[in-house]
Design brief:
alpha/beta, three-stranded mixed sheet
């Protein structure tokens, strides 16, 4: 007696339908997954900035003042460069013991003169000392935004920033080590201090909008509270050290890049510059305020606008201007 056998399977049309449905589901899920991932990265980044702000407060509680933005020219803090003949140690070096990096701080200063970090003295740049050069190669996770990869730079690593008088106004100098000249070995950062409009350069107009971290600065928290107020003043922010899009060429080194001016605004996309605060987050840049709170500043703030005026006012600590947060917030 014959027995028939029936075989079950998908027809070609059914398979195509399944593939189509799967593709649609993936297309719907991927953006959601990416949004969740970016939200987590943004939260982690905000936590990093908050820890940095807390470290700055602990430093001020211990030493009476916030650390200087960097140790550049002295006693005239507004001199231009080159020659580069001063320490150019940045603010993060002072914060190392308060960022659970005490051993790294001890390693860094082990081969330096005892008063090397004193803002009132002058020594050769940090890269002239083996202990500082070795310590500068350390990768500090807290100084890296999860959305950013400053170690992907292909051309050079920025080792210092300095605002100076350039009649009739001012200018910014950014020093670099090419990757084949030691720049590839340096520890990078995604953050830097806020220098205000153009730092402090012994020009009364520019200095009125000076930020908390300038060349040889020493701002007391009490001064900040009595002036513009800690909750109204930008303290640290995100900086790529390069354009927002395209192949990464530059990235900042934590040892020397202590602060950045805000004069360039927060232009987005193809209009962004190397010299403005920027980030890999969509539409925003995160800042730590003087009171340790975290605030998102929107991208797209261009010079000559009301938003720009408020951004500059928020970056200075004693300009006396009231900031409309609605103009700059995300």
């Amino acid at each position: 007696m014959d027995r028939s056998v029936r075989r079950y399977g998908f027809t070609l049309i059914e398979l195509l339908v399944v593939f189509a449905i799967t593709s649609v589901l993936i297309g719907l899920l991927l953006p959601a997954v990416q949004r969740v991932r970016e939200a987590a990265a943004r939260a982690h980044c905000a936590s990093n900035l908050k820890q940095i702000g807390l470290a700055a407060h602990n430093y001020a509680d211990t030493h009476g003042v916030l650390p200087p933005g960097q140790l550049g020219p002295y006693p005239d803090v507004g001199l231009g460069l080159p020659p580069i003949n001063t320490q150019f140690i940045g603010a993060f070096v002072y914060l190392l013991p308060f960022l659970e990096q005490g051993s790294l701080a001890r390693q860094l200063i082990s081969g330096l003169p005892a008063d090397y970090l004193n803002p009132s003295v002058v020594y050769p740049p940090w890269w002239n000392y083996p202990s500082a050069t070795a310590a500068a190669q350390t990768r500090i996770k807290l100084l890296l935004c999860p959305s950013d990869d400053p170690y992907s730079n292909t051309q050079a690593t920025e080792i210092l920033t300095h605002t100076f008088r350039q009649p009739p106004s001012w200018d910014l100098f950014v020093g670099v080590f090419n990757l084949d000249q030691g720049g590839d070995n340096l520890g990078r950062t995604s953050y830097t201090g806020v220098a205000g409009y153009g730092g402090q350069i012994n020009n009364s107009t520019i200095d009125l909008f000076a930020g908390l971290f300038c060349n040889r600065s020493a701002v007391r928290l009490g001064q900040l509270t009595a002036a513009d107020g800690a909750s109204n003043t930008l303290m640290f922010g995100e900086w790529l050290g390069d354009f927002e899009y395209g192949r990464r060429r530059f990235a900042p080194a934590w040892i020397g890049v202590g602060s950045l001016p805000t004069a360039y605004g927060t232009l987005p996309g193809p209009d962004t510059t190397v010299f403005e605060f920027n980030s890999k987050h969509t539409g925003l840049i995160q800042f730590c305020m003087g009171d340790g709170s975290i605030r998102a500043i929107r991208k797209g703030i261009a010079p000559g606008t009301v938003a720009y005026d408020n951004y500059i006012a928020a970056s200075g600590w004693h300009d006396g201007l009231v900031v409309d947060e609605r103009q700059i917030g995300n």
